[in-house]
Amino acid sequence: MSTATERPKPQVDEIERSIDSFFGGLGRAWKKLLILAIVIGLIWFVIGPNIGSWWQYILYGAFMLFQLLFAILFMIVQFAALFWFLARGRTYWVQPGETGVGFKDYKGNPEVLEAASRVVTLLKGVKEFKQMGGQVTRGILLVGPPGTGKSYLAQCISTEAGVPFGYASAPSFQNMFFGVSNLTVMMLYRKARNLARKHGACILFIDEIDAIGMSRMGSGPGFGGALGGFFGGGTGLLNELLLQMDPPPHEDSWFAKLKRSLGLKKGASERPLVLTIGATNIAQTLDPALLRPGRFDRKIFVDYPDYDGRKEIIKYYLDKVAHEEMDLDRLASETIGQSPAAIKFIINEAVINAHFNGRAKISYEDFAVALDNHEVGLRHPIRNMLMEEKRALAYHEAGHAVAMLKLYKRMRVTRVTIIRHEGGVLGFAMPKPVQETYTTDRNELLAHIQVALAARASEELFLGTQLSGVFADLQQATRAAAAYIGYLGMNGSLYSTAAFGEGIDPGMKREIDKLLREQFLKVKSLLNANRELVVAIAETLLQRLELNGDDLLRIEQEVERRKLQGEELPSLPEMDAPVSVLELLPTESASTAAYQDTPNDQ
């Protein structure tokens, strides 16, 4: 029977194992111990008695060791500073409310605004939503054409949610040194998570995300794969972005890591809410891993505003500037296809135009000039063009204009000009839809073909020749005819060449040419039946150089009135001087007065 003072058997075994392990370690390390003893003996018996003579060598060795350590430390600090400088994110960090724009400033797209409002509601009520078992959206992809307000929407979301906003351009992440791009993304998300801990959430907006998020499918081991990582390419940057958008729960701060290592913090790590908003206009090129749930959970398409949206946007920006009374319905109708950014730019250009013309408020004329400059560019008139060439140009454009007036039902002619504009265009006739159109019937497509061929018909009818100016017109007419026959099945055949990417075969070429000839004869007959109108528009163009839609309607109405009353109508003049038809229009156009030719130019 064991006594009370007798140690338990397991404890005795543990002590014996420890002693055996200690002496076993000494036995295995006897060579190292022997060498250490010899070194200590040499120092003690050789250097010790002669320490004075050895002291200079000891100091020299210590000095050399210090220099070596200092050089290594300096290289490390220099290398770290270089990488820190190269990896700094070119990111604009905006504090809550700093942008000054909110949902009250987002106009023209109520459906997008509703989707954004839901995101804000979730950001504000993160705790309540998590208590329900839900997970807050961590990624939103904004897809849409340039200028539709994607970055503007992200700023509005951050303001309404009351959270910090980081604006970064994806191309700025790229770096020629391997690993620096990854470090940039890591530092960017680290800062975003720190801000999210402080404010509850943080929004990180990455513009032009397709620059780093393009699909990895088909990337090979060539220059882009083998050396691309070192020279700014490769897929390492995309991989890092994928990881940072949806990382595993982990501790970022050193204090939290220390507490967890000491056992003072247990349980799952709380992931700060960083909402990544990406913007692109070519979403089809993005990698599928970016688009999966958990990264970009939602996609919001931000399109051009419709009629009501444009009207709302125009009113919003007009209210910010001094302006005369303007018809918003007319302005909305004339800006079909314009983005919110373009509308803002046009109104600002109108203010500039009014300012330099000595007016304190903008008028419709200022708006029209700004819209014209935005759509077709600045005028570059040729002041010494020969009358023969100018007349040919006038009848060319008059043919287009009359065909548009007579054939287009859902479009109107807004401008006809023979003033050269940016891009080398000597003249043009510009149609615009009366309202948004989303489909085209066969008659409208045939009308497009006739309008494109009207210039050649006008040249043959009124000038008796064929000119090189129809180069682009024939291309446009041929494409429309090819679509009519080969793609849209409007010629009786339902076979589409677009199904297999086939070219135009000789048989189809003959059909296209036949259709073009038929439409050419029709538009030539149309212009011949409206000879007086063509002459009136062309001869007025020769003197005014540019006509707007209202001018064309006045000329058309005047010609019709004279026909009904049997009055004299404009006829084809001699080629050396223009016919005076200015009485068809009451006043001279102020926008073209500066471009009138001098007598020497005639």
Topology:
Layout (H helix, E strand, L loop, with lengths): L8 H20 L1 H18 L3 H37 L3 E4 L15 H15 L1 H6 L7 E5 L6 H12 L3 E5 L10 H20 L2 E6 L2 H4 L9 H4 L9 H10 L8 H8 L12 E7 L7 H4 L6 E4 L5 H12 L9 H7 L5 H17 L7 H13 L10 H21 L3 E7 L10 E6 L8 H22 L7 H17 L18 H24 L1 H14 L1 E3 H17 L37
Parallel strand pairs: 2-5, 2-6, 3-4, 4-5
Antiparallel strand pairs: 1-3, 7-8, 7-9
Helix pairs in contact: 4-6, 7-10, 13-14, 13-15, 15-16, 17-18, 17-21, 18-19, 18-20, 19-20, 21-22
Query: Strand-residue fraction?
Result: 5-15%
Q: Which superfamily, in CATH terms, is the homologous superfamily of the largest domain? A: Peptidase M41
Count of DSSP strands: 9
What is the architecture of the largest domain at the second tier of CATH? Up-down Bundle
N- to C-terminal distance? 137 Å
Basic shape: elongated
Please count the helical segments.
22
Structural Rg: 39 Å
Global structural class: alpha/beta
Remind me, CATH topology of the largest domain? Methane Monooxygenase Hydroxylase, Chain G, domain 1
Strand order of the largest sheet: 1-3-4-5-2-6
Oligomer state of the chains in this structure: single chain
User: What low-confidence regions span 5 or more consecutive residues with pLDDT below 50?
Assistant: 1-5, 220-233, 574-582, 586-602
CATH C-level name of the largest domain = Mainly Alpha
The major β-sheet equals: 6 strands, mixed
